Amino acid sequence: DNGSRFQSIFREAELSDAIIFFDECEMLFAKRDSGPSQVTELLTELERFEGIVLLATNRPFDLDEAMYRRISEVFEFKQPNHAERLEIWKLLTSHESVPVEDGIDWEAVALQYELTGGFIKNAV
User: Fold this and answer.
1) Does 97 lie in the same domain as 63?
2) What is the pLDDT of residues 1-37, one digit of tens each?
3) Using CA atoms, how far apart are residues 41 and 93, in angstroms rounded to an integer?
4) Do residues 89 and 111 both lie within one domain?
């Protein structure tokens, strides 16, 4: 049962003074159609919990509206601009463990491919 599992997670976090982190939280806190749902149970546990809960999502518009009333701070990480992408490319390819062909124009790569830091890391 998800409800009791969520209760256990929050209770364990409270007892150990831990931070709870929900990655891709839209999967858990998606908009409700109607009636009781796992979202309702999660929101109840979230309200009771006095510790820190961090939520990460790439799809904030998929979150249930009631979730936003319980969020005290929102931090948005935007896609890096050209200069930031160039810095990421250089940083991730500077290690000796990453074989890189000489003469790569990282400036052109950063300009042409508008990737996030995660995609750049995966490419390397």
Assistant:
1) no
2) 555 888 999 999 999 999 999 999 888 888 776 555 6
3) 45
4) yes
Total domain count, the chain:
2
3-state class percentages of the chain: helix first, strand second, coil last, to nearest 5 = 50, 5, 45
Q: Is 29 exposed, middle or buried (0-12, 13-18, 19+ CB in 10 A)?
A: buried
Instruction: Give the Cα separation of 76 and 95 in Å (integer).
Output: 29
CA–CA dist 120, 123 (Å, integer) = 5
- Cβ contact 54:13 at 8 Å: no
pLDDT digit string, tens, across residues 29-88: 887 765 556 788 888 899 999 999 999 998 888 888 888 888 889 898 889 999 999 999
Phi and psi angles of residue 108, each rounded to the nearest 5 degrees, phi first: -65, -40
Please indicate, yes or no, if residue 23 is contained in any of the structural domains.
yes
Contact 40, 32 (CB under 8 A): yes
Q: Tell me how crowded residue 84 is: count the other CB atoms within 10 A of its CB.
A: 13
pTM, 2 dp: 0.68
Domain span at residue 88 reads 82-123
